[in-house]
Specification:
This is MacB-like periplasmic core domain-containing protein. The chain folds into 2 domains: about 1-35; about 35-240, no CATH class. The chain has a 7-stranded antiparallel β-sheet. The protein has a 3-stranded antiparallel β-sheet with strand order 3-8-7. A 3-stranded antiparallel β-sheet has the order 5-4-10. It has 4 helices and 19 strands. The protein starts with a helix and ends in a 16-residue tail after the last helix. By secondary structure, it is an alpha+beta fold.
């Protein structure tokens, strides 16, 4: 009996080794052709038109920061290390929560910008994006009852001519979805665009708009255009977002 078992065991071992080889090769092929790409957040602030104004020796424009699901997207250190142009980004605490101050030094002002990005391990849901992506928002306790994002333009701004232009503020938070085995999660763009006329200063409420796309090959579209035609059955959520 023993001699007959040995060939059988040899066949079993051979088949097992072949299966392991096939799995290993197949796994390498999947990883090669369908790599896992983590998602990431992008936060970009741009303010133009400041050159039509003068300010104090130190001037700060304060803008909302991104938050997902009640948690800030970036830490204080992240905000301090933003890539910036003509300004110093500084996290500041207001009565409505943490915000970002863009500090200019010198009375002659100029256009400013700041940007930061980081990877994330879990894609945010559509509900988290819709609930509020900026601080302050209705999700955050507020001493002044501000339930929507706002910006703060200092009262010290003075026009340098009799016909100054508006101050244009653009704030974009982009959620680039992850890609796993060739399947790309949705991308979201939450955008604030505000034209501030001369003479308007202080707290200025702003309204974020949400845009959506399935693939980086597509252009962003307003979320309202997608929800009507892309609903998961009975959920009120785009089908791609359902886990």
């Amino acid at each position: 009996m023993v001699p007959s078992i040995i060939p059988f065991l040899g066949k079993v071992i051979g088949v097992s080794l072949l299966a392991i080889a096939v799995i290993a090769i197949g796994g390498n092929i999947l990883v090669h052709y369908y790599p896992t790409v983590p998602g990431h957040y992008s936060y970009v602030v741009s303010i133009t038109g400041l050159s039509d104004y003068q300010g104090d020796p130190i001037t700060e424009v304060v803008v909302p920061i991104p938050a997902i699901g009640g948690s800030p997207v970036f830490s204080e250190k992240d905000l301090q290390r933003m890539i910036s142009g003509n300004c110093t980004p500084l996290p500041v605490m207001t009565k409505d929560g943490e915000m970002l101050a863009l500090r200019l030094v010198g009375t002659d002002l100029t256009d400013i910008s700041a940007a930061k990005s980081r990877d994330f391990s879990k894609d945010p849901s559509l509900e988290e994006v819709q609930e509020g992506v900026f601080v302050p928002s209705s999700l955050w306790p507020s001493e002044t009852a501000n339930a929507s994002p706002y910006i703060i333009i200092p009262d010290s701004l003075r026009p340098v001519s009799s016909d100054p232009g508006p101050i244009s503020i653009s704030i974009n938070v982009t959620v680039f979805g992850s890609t796993t085995f060739g399947e790309h999660r949705p991308d979201y763009l939450i955008s604030i665009v505000e034209q501030i006329p001369p003479g308007r200063t202080g707290i200025i409420p702003v309204e974020p708009r949400i845009y959506y796309r399935d693939s980086f090959r597509e252009a962003f579209r307003p979320l309202e255009e997608n929800v009507g035609s892309r609903m998961g059955a009975g959920t009120g959520i785009p089908a791609e977002v359902i886990s």
